[in-house]
């Protein structure tokens, strides 16, 4: 259920699930393939229309400007006419009106029957291809989402670091004025403080870029804000994936299409049969637009057409061989895709377990290092340790923070990938 809300032209997402729900409705990379399903559906209906009879009605008018004379044997009308004599006569009417009704129905056409099945399979493949696009878009959004989450966490740490170095700098300035420390020691603290300021600026800029990338992915002009980080973390865990990978589903459907094409091409050898019925009605008259004395000439016929392919230069055989070769290629690709996706799932589980362990360890190390840094700062302020030692100990904290953020990034990526991989894209 989409629970994101807008505040002063800003859309706030409370969880990653809300981002995905919004993407389903607004992301161009998901909407366009979904809209193409309507085109596939129309194409399927168009192919099915070949099963129905075609009915055509026509009407016409002929103006016989010159009626051709005909030589008729003289004895036909006059028994006393000389042998071999002919008489010139003209038959027909100058104006002829015609109407025609034609019905044609191919009652038996195996190739079109299999073409309908192929069209249906292609429509189903189009739906699966839409889900593949969804899967890829989800992964793109996951990468952006966890990067923003990481940047927000990094910003929190950076601000705390800046506070720490600002305190250290104030303390160093006082000691420098008193002549306790050298200018090089003061410069070292100043450099560290400037580095922390620069880190905040870089993180802010990076976060701004990430938000704009997410706006582009979601087809949004409004500002975006993520308010709840890792809200579904507890519900994600590594396990066997029950849902079939969308790319495997798509390849399986491609094999079904190839099998149907083989049958469709084999149907080129089969006979076809159709019925034709035609009814014609003509009016012939001597006067234009005057049918009162017209001669009516009705005509109708019913025909049956049987077409048996005998020889076509082996063209059909080559088409069948070609479609069978394509089927074999699709089967090889399916086997490869299944192996690749199975291994990707296994690797993803291994990555999740390892990155989770690394994050737990580095979180503990960071917590201990934070405590050590507090003790070190107290010792420095009490004059027990030198500024150099204080800065050296502080670098240990920075190293622990870096390791923590790196493990958080690795774990977040694995976590979101597993979350998406567990989605059953076959369900509506």
Report on this model:
With 428 residues, the chain is of the alpha+beta class. The protein has two domains: 316 residues, Outer membrane efflux proteins (OEP), CATH 1.20.1600.10; 94 residues, Outer membrane efflux proteins (OEP) (Single Sheet), CATH 2.20.200. The chain has a four-stranded antiparallel β-sheet with strand order 3-6-8-9, with no helix packed on it. It has a three-stranded mixed β-sheet with strand order 1-2-7. Strands 4-5 form a two-stranded antiparallel sheet. A hairpin with a 3-residue loop joins strand 1 and strand 2. Helix 3 packs antiparallel against helix 7 and helix 6 runs antiparallel to helix 7. The model has no long low-confidence stretch (mean pLDDT 88).
Question: Which helices and strands, and how do they pair?
Answer:
Blueprint: E1 5-6, E2 10-13, H1 16-26, H2 28-48, E3 54-63, E4 69-73, E5 86-90, E6 95-108, H3 110-177, H4 183-217, E7 223-226, H5 246-266, E8 272-285, E9 295-307, H6 315-381, H7 387-421
Parallel strand pairs: 2-7
Antiparallel strand pairs: 1-2, 3-6, 4-5, 6-8, 8-9
Helix pairs in contact: 1-3, 2-3, 3-4, 3-5, 3-7, 5-6, 6-7
